[in-house]
Amino acid sequence: MWNKLVLLSVVALTFNYLALAYEPSPLQDFCVADSSSSVKVNGATCKNPMQVQAADFFFSGLHLRGNTSNQLGSKVTPVFATQLPGLNTLGISMVRIDYAPWGLNPPHTHPRATEILTVLEGTLQVGFVTSNPDNRFITKVLQKGDVFVFPVGLVHFQQNVGNGNAVVIAALSSQNPGAITIANAVFGANPSIPWDILARAFQVDKSVVDQLQAKF
Ligand SMILES: *[C@@H]1O[C@H](CO)[C@@H](O)[C@H](O)[C@H]1NC(C)=O
């Protein structure tokens, strides 16, 4: 009886652990990504700790404005494990996002991370949509100093609705959050998703699908 209870607790704890940890917890102080190794162990292999320097935990340049001269009027500057090797296995990273007036960071999702964002400058409308079947749209206008969280996996966006430029810093709960931009994934897939699939999914004619696919 007692053994069974212990076993059940262990099973429960294991599942609890699996449910809580999006990335495995580190088994050493750090595991600086070894960019010279092609071996991947669900992340990068560790550099010899004796050769690790302060520079491995360091990134410079987040004070620099991203170039927003593009179709969307926004620019993401990432600080992931690729840019900051010391992040490897730590389950965290950050970005700077710049927005020109009316600039948009279009609807996208991070398959591996929750995102918490703070506005440094400007005014942004942000939002996300809950999963099926509700697809509830949750949105808010943010000012300087405001913080908003986008739960892991949900489709979200930010748009500059102020008069000037806007800039945010966001933290993500993965060293490599990934990003799936909805429009690009659906209409810009390579090779293309067959038009009849998209026409049926979006309940539109082939001409509309052609038009959208041509843009991506
Ligand atoms: C910003 O990007 C645009 C388009 O790619 C380019 O023409 C322009 O030179 C860039 N500006 C700066 C300051 O790098």
Automatic annotation (TrEMBL):
<keyword id="KW-0479">Metal-binding</keyword>
<dbReference type="InterPro" id="IPR011051">
    <property type="entry name" value="RmlC_Cupin_sf"/>
</dbReference>
<feature type="binding site">
    <location>
        <position position="108"/>
    </location>
    <ligand>
        <name>Mn(2+)</name>
    </ligand>
</feature>
<keyword id="KW-0464">Manganese</keyword>
<dbReference type="Pfam" id="PF00190">
    <property type="entry name" value="Cupin_1"/>
</dbReference>
<dbReference type="InterPro" id="IPR014710">
    <property type="entry name" value="RmlC-like_jellyroll"/>
</dbReference>
<keyword id="KW-0964">Secreted</keyword>
<dbReference type="GO" id="GO:0048046">
    <property type="term" value="C:apoplast"/>
</dbReference>
<dbReference type="InterPro" id="IPR001929">
    <property type="entry name" value="Germin"/>
</dbReference>
<comment type="similarity">
    <text>Belongs to the germin family.</text>
</comment>
<feature type="disulfide bond">
    <location>
        <begin position="31"/>
        <end position="46"/>
    </location>
</feature>
<feature type="binding site">
    <location>
        <position position="110"/>
    </location>
    <ligand>
        <name>Mn(2+)</name>
    </ligand>
</feature>
<feature type="binding site">
    <location>
        <position position="115"/>
    </location>
    <ligand>
        <name>Mn(2+)</name>
    </ligand>
</feature>
<feature type="binding site">
    <location>
        <position position="110"/>
    </location>
    <ligand>
        <name>oxalate</name>
    </ligand>
</feature>
<keyword id="KW-0052">Apoplast</keyword>
<feature type="binding site">
    <location>
        <position position="105"/>
    </location>
    <ligand>
        <name>oxalate</name>
    </ligand>
</feature>
<keyword id="KW-0732">Signal</keyword>
<dbReference type="InterPro" id="IPR019780">
    <property type="entry name" value="Germin_Mn-BS"/>
</dbReference>
<keyword id="KW-1015">Disulfide bond</keyword>
<feature type="binding site">
    <location>
        <position position="115"/>
    </location>
    <ligand>
        <name>oxalate</name>
    </ligand>
</feature>
<dbReference type="GO" id="GO:0030145">
    <property type="term" value="F:manganese ion binding"/>
</dbReference>
<dbReference type="InterPro" id="IPR006045">
    <property type="entry name" value="Cupin_1"/>
</dbReference>
<feature type="signal peptide">
    <location>
        <begin position="1"/>
        <end position="21"/>
    </location>
</feature>
<protein>
    <recommendedName>
        <fullName>Germin-like protein</fullName>
    </recommendedName>
</protein>
<feature type="binding site">
    <location>
        <position position="156"/>
    </location>
    <ligand>
        <name>Mn(2+)</name>
    </ligand>
</feature>
<feature type="domain" description="Cupin type-1">
    <location>
        <begin position="60"/>
        <end position="210"/>
    </location>
</feature>
